[in-house]
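If I may wish for something, please walk me through the protein I am sending here so I can picture the backbone:
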Amino acid sequence: MKKFAKTKIIATIGPASWDKSILEEMINQGMDIARINASFADHDELLRVSQQIREISPRIAIMVDTEGHKIRVSGFNEDIRLEKDQLLAISGDQSIPNCLHVNYPSLHNDVIRGTEILIDDGHLKVVVQDIQKNVLITRVVQGGVLKKQKTVNIPNAHLNFPIMSEKDKSVIAFAIKNNFDFISASFIRNKEDLLEIRKVMGQSKTKLIAKIENREGVKNIDEIIDEADGIMIARGDLGVELPIEKVPVIQKKIIYKCRLKGKPVIVATQMLESMKENLSPTRAEVSDIANAVMDGTDVVMLSAETSIGKYPVESVETMNRIALEAESALRPQEIFGHTDASDETDEVCRNVLQLTEKLKLKGIIVLSKTGRTIASLSRHRLQVPIWTISSDPTLIRQMNIFRSVKSFYSKNFPIDRDECTEKAVSTVYSYGELEINDKIAIISGSSLRYESPNTTLEIVTVKDVLGR
């Protein structure tokens, strides 16, 4: 039987992975969550891909990325060569001739002389020399070939975008209507951005992931973690908006902060970049994935590797293999801090960590209607599996974002706690996860009939429960 890492894998779906057989193989190799990037897909495409994934496996979670406010160059069809020290006029006014146009009309109001402007993920760089009405006169300090629709970043400027574009509102509404499991919101700057998105989301069960990819997002990370359902460290734009040497330390700090609060955290961008073209990764990429796992991330993500790369299946298999090896060198990582669960639940979960090693437990079954207990327990990065059973398919998919968690479906779950425990153990046993003499922990609310913050911990042997 294929062995899967406790660290979860997100794979981005695109032309390279649209084929049903490719998707099936990616799932067989360890894909837990399928990501669709709305920057490159319209509603018809979002619907087609999501329906295809649901038909293949109702267990695979679906995430959609909003585009966010990304400035791009426009106004030309053929590549432009920029030479060092040449002057380049830039404007957000599309009617002005002989300019490089951008899709941000008020750019001239948000920069000053000396502002650096990065184009194409920082491969090209210009500096503002003068501002003449709504035209920037810039000097090229790092030249090269400029292709159409490339991105523009202005690291040290506060850009006055509205919180959401109409396109993003439309994508969010579409995702809610079609029961997507996660919305990953781009370029989140503060908690107000998230609160506005939640207004559009309404009472949906869809979870909101905040992408951290600019200076403001890093600065306000604590309030963003509090408000979001999870965090994605989007290192591509982050490495352009901030000095690139700062990104590894920022990554470690954000992972730690998320674990303190019991919020799932995703490390993304260029993890196996070379596998877009090559069957094997570089040694640096292997180390990058292993270090993210050792840092304690819940999830590692593939982007272009699986959406447009030559080897989407092999990329997932490689990432799973690297994560497995990194996990084999780790021990549980106890962590303190308060999660969204009760203080009692946090303490029970911390004590289960100690009991797991002392009593040689095979794993932990968590009976939770909300997932808060799972979040509290998973953050300690246990070496044994955490099993959760639910009659809610959406909760099953969403809990799979947490490290070490395996979710199972069971119809008509009993309300009585003893009957519920017996059915939970029976379900896990039926999937071949347990042997009859295994010892396990079971964490549940003291009352499954009524909402209650109380938590009950049992240590049982499988045969004793199944023999009741």
